[in-house]
Amino acid sequence: MNIVFAEPIGLTVSQKKSFVEEIEELGHSVRFFDNIPSSQDDLIKRIKDFDVLVISNYKIASEVIEASENLKMIAVAFTGVDHIPMDLCRSKGIVVCNAAGYSTQGVAELAIALSINLYRKIIPLDNATRLGRTRDGFLGGELNGKIFGIIGLGAIGERVARLALAFGCKVIVWSRNVKALEGVDFVELEYLLKNADIVSLHLPLTDKTLGLINESNLKLMKPSAVLINTARGPIVDSKALANALKTGIIGGAAIDVYEHEPPIEENHPLFSVGNTILLPHIGFATKEAICARSDIVINNIKSWITGKTENQV
Q: CATH second-level architecture of 2-102+287-305?
């Protein structure tokens, strides 16, 4: 098998060395690219003649799959696979495996950190201090006693729920998957939006979740409520969110994901509103998570080669 890492995924030197030695000993070959593809055409050139593709969150167009006649397996160094043409892969018998669970703790901790940042206004107050100003009458809020609404109770949503409970929050959840979780109340979406002080999104992007947080649903939220999105950008209608922030329909928002990967265009609607925290997709970006992700990807490839496929999507 010919294996290509079409973009870097954060392998350590020792991980890369060990993997190459093991794979070559089995009679396979590996090639690494140390930068992301410049275009879909560049991606096609990179993976031509390879059997196994390793990709992180770089979008793969259908024409790339069509042009890759030897492709048999895609090892995705990411949890979500909405950037992969899954139906086409299935029709061609291409196995797709993800790195499920690698960033659960990192994303959950970021969701909590963003909630605290919005309530305590840490970023603007840091700026004020550097300019020689005082708190100027500012009083923040505490997570303790707040109603923390979680939309989607997968592994990350569950971890966020446990952290929120530890901070003294009342946790309510709307999810298609109902599981027993002590201290958590499952409610309807409308109830959650109307009652939560914090609404944190932890859903995959699907046809049903696309644009879920739209104008009408934002209007259900409290004027003091804040929205946290560390899931997928298109779950939120950015224009509707920007308008809700401008007009005081909700109190604030912290966003780590967008309609596409950063860099984000200068005229993005959220850049023109205040009381926001906008991050360049860092939920998964911890040393611990990247190390775990690399181990999962390597194991997915080795397992597939030996006929024991793991983490197939």
A: 3-Layer(aba) Sandwich (3.40)
